[in-house]
Write a structure and sequence with these properties.
Order of helices and strands: HHHH
Largest sheet: none
Number of helices: 4
Shape: elongated
Number of strands: 0
Number of domains: 2
Radius of gyration: 21 Å
Strand content: under 5%
Distance between the termini: 41 Å
């Protein structure tokens, strides 16, 4: 499907006969542009983006743990996420 066809399809499918606010229309257009850009992104770049996202999430998680448990040794900050993941696996399994 061409990029222009995607735009037309999305607009017709989701907003048929519906009056949109300018903010909602802009949000929809930005979303469609992201979808088109993602479809054109090579797989290698997608994998790298996923890795960067994971690493960012880890850094944010560690920052939250440091804030929650101030004054702990660095080793403890590394153990806490592992413990949480193990607990989650036990609950799910």
């Amino acid at each position: 499907m061409s990029d222009e066809k995607l735009r037309e399809t999305a607009t017709k499918a989701y907003h048929a006969g519906e009056q949109q606010s300018p903010c909602a229309a802009l949000a929809d257009e930005l979303y469609r542009e992201r979808v088109v850009r993602a479809r054109h992104t090579p797989p290698e770049q997608k994998v790298l983006a996923g890795q960067r996202l994971f690493e960012s999430a880890c850094l944010i998680t560690l920052a939250g743990i440091r804030n929650q448990f101030p004054g702990q040794p660095e080793e403890r900050y590394q153990e806490i996420p592992r413990e949480r993941l193990a607990l989650r696996r036990r609950r799910q399994g």
